[in-house]
Amino acid sequence: MTMTVATMMCMCLLLLQLSITFFVFMCCVGNGNARITSAFVRSEFPSVDIPLDNKVFAVPKGYNAPQQVHITQGDYDGKAVIISWVTTDEPGPSKVQYGTSEKTYYYAAEGTTTNYTFYKYQSGYIHHCLVDGLEFDTKYYYKIGSGNSSREFWFQTPPEIDPDAPYIFGIIGDLGQTYNSLSTLEHYMHSEGQTVLFVGDLSYADRYQYNDVGVRWDTWGRFVEQSAAYQPWIWSAGNHEIEYMPYMGEVLPFKSYLYRFPTPYAASKSSSPLWYAIRRASAHIIVLSSYSPFVTYTPQWLWLAEEFKRVNREKTPWLIVLMHVPIYNSNEAHFMEGESIRAAFESWFILNKVDIVFAGHVHAYERSYRISNIHYSVSSGDPYPVPDESAPVYITVGDGGNQEGLAGRFRDPQPDYSAFREASYGHSTLEIKNRTHAFYRWNRNSDGKQVPTDSFVLHNQYCMIKYEIFSVEKYALTYIYIKDTKYHLYIIQDFERGIKSYKIFDLLTNLITCIRYYVLVNPSAVYVYICMYIYICVYIYIVN
Ligand SMILES: *[C@@H]1O[C@H](CO)[C@@H](O)[C@H](O)[C@H]1NC(C)=O
Ligand SMILES: *[C@@H]1O[C@H](CO)[C@@H](O)[C@H](O)[C@H]1NC(C)=O
Ligand SMILES: *[C@@H]1O[C@H](CO)[C@@H](O)[C@H](O)[C@H]1NC(C)=O
Ligand SMILES: [Fe+2]
Q1: Would you report the helix, strand and coil content of the chain in percent, each value rounded to 5?
Q2: Which of 51, 89, 476, 493 is the most buried (most CB within 10 A)?
Q3: Transmembrane residues, as ranges (predicted)?
Q4: Given 334, 361, 363, 427, which residue is catalytic?
């Protein structure tokens, strides 16, 4: 309060100068991205499926023994699982016995049995059993099948929904059933991953014909059981799940997939198992279907609009989207295939500050910078993606190792939006530490070892920098008129600090963020905002 008007003016000028310096500095940073096209191309094994008699496809012994056991989340928040398996000799039983200690099963749940034909292939009896009312953060043991051919497994429920709940997701895509697929799966199983986010294209059974399609779905079910029976795999569908095969009389899209891989879609008010959402620990995960209608007014579009409203970043700060076809892909394979869904949903991703979008489809690895292309229209605008702090990071992990082989041809030159790309097989992990930090890593399959190749710290889009809108009454300034235009004043507040404890350094840090934000929102008003912001910064400093 002892400051004179002159001192204040001096400070204003100083701040203005500093802010301009920072502004120039930021512009340089924006263009100084070091894009990487890794020269490494790694395919250890030939792109052929593992033979049917290999032990990874072994059928468990015993009459009507359960096989192809896999689990997925069974509700919105993680207190339920759906346990699925196949038996071949008779339809029953569909019962799951479970409990919290080994070999002691106090509880039981009854499931359902279904079966289908595909050409002349007759599926086994497919069992799905919802086990709900579980405790959070608890290890459960479960037993399926009967008599001496029953089998036992276990899983761990996630922690209760909490903004700081740590959790480790694995991300796998386009897996298939080759020796490369096996390598990916084994590496993933040696990671700390607790749940798999699967980005579509499961078995590649559609590469076969007639009865072999069903046979290869069964082998794939037995192949992934080693992981999928013990932890949830969160499913999304890819093009290899469509199986539109009119020449053999099969025209119902996603038939095998829908019979075999249930999802908890009703819990998120979805009308289709192909798109849905779950919440797990500190993450809200939205699963989209690239091969279902998504344009305006379609069920998927309407559902997604509603689901974004249900996202509560105070409870689940991490917002993750899964879809099969990547929106930002600079590989020759499937180039531009994501454009239609980008046009439909990209602006929502920006508006809702999605943290990360995982996709598959392209059999290589690629990571983008935070960029967007939402101002383009068919009649105007710049069609080139621009840096955008509100945009998600886009990651393509279609590199599970299926029989179609690697997508080795990247477009040259590497576009500005592409941060890292490499044509090798592997998987990713996303290690959420708390509400602000997650550690992301892509692990290449390399000579029988997994090699962490691309990694970065992911800062949460919602919690790191929280845009607070203060009422101006509070600071004697709500809005100002400049040339008859009303400008509202927004202050950006760092999440961890209250406005009262701002010091000059913090103000400057926030000033940078503020400018960045306004450049995005309203480029023409930057100067006005800078002046306004300096004014209020100084005001707050004096008050303190
Ligand atoms: C399902 O299994 C039952 C009992 O074995 C059989 O009668 C029926 O034809 C099967 N249905 C299909 C669609 O395969
Ligand atoms: C499993 O149980 C069945 C029927 O109870 C019996 O016939 C069979 O011999 C048993 N098999 C083994 C390996 O114990
Ligand atoms: C969140 O985790 C990061 C990385 O482990 C750590 O540096 C940071 O201090 C944590 N923040 C809080 C509020 O615990
Ligand atoms: Fe695909």
Answers
A1: 30, 30, 45
A2: 493
A3: 517-542
A4: 334
Which CATH number applies to 55-62+163-459? 3.60.21.10
Residue 65 CA: which ligand is closest? 2
CA dihedral for 303, 308, 310, 316, sign (positive or negative)? positive
CB 148 near ligand 2, within 6 Å: yes
Sign of CA dihedral 531, 537, 540, 544: negative
Q: Which protein residue has the closest C-alpha to ligand 2 atom 14?
A: 148
Q: Check if 32 has its Cβ closer than 6 Å to any atom of ligand 2.
A: no
The ligand minimizing its distance to the Cα of 459 is 3
Average pLDDT for 422-451: 90
Return the H-helix or E-strand segment holding 84.
strand 81-87
Q: Which ligand 1 atom is at minimum distance from the Cα of 117? A: 14
User: Which among 181, 99, 115, 221 is positioned nearest to 406, based on CA atoms?
Assistant: 181
Q: Whose CA is nearest to atom 14 of ligand 1?
A: 116
pTM summary value = 0.83
Is any ligand 2 atom within 6 A of the Cβ of residue 147? Answer: yes
Better pLDDT: 68 or 462: 68
Strands 125-131 vs 81-87: parallel, antiparallel or unpaired: antiparallel
Residue 451 — pLDDT band, cuts 50, 70, 90? confident
459 noted as active-site residue: no
Q: Is 370 in the pocket of ligand 3 (CB under 6 A)?
A: no
Instruction: Read off the pLDDT of residues 92-141 as tens digits, 9 standing for 90 and up.
Output: 899 999 999 999 999 999 999 999 999 999 999 999 999 999 999 999 99
Q: How much is the pLDDT for 538?
A: 60
**What is the residue extent of each domain of the chain?**
5-32+465-543, 55-62+163-459
Judge whether 318 and 460 are in contact, CB under 8 Å.
Answer: yes
Q: Is the CB of 88 under 6 A from ligand 3?
A: no
Which atom of ligand 1 is nearest to 123's Cα? 14
Residue having the nearest C-alpha atom to atom 3 of ligand 2: 148
**Count of other CB atoms within 10 angstroms of residue 48:** 12
Ligand 3 touching residue 411 (CB < 6 A): no
Single out the residue of 543, 517, 542 nearest to residue 530, CA to CA: 517
- The dihedral through the CA atoms of 212, 216, 219, 225 has a sign that is negative
CA 307 to CA 331: how far, in whole Å? 31
SS (H, E, C) 428-490: EEEEECCCCEEEEEEEEEECCEEEEEEEEEEECCCCCEEEECCCHHHHCCCEEEECCEEEECC
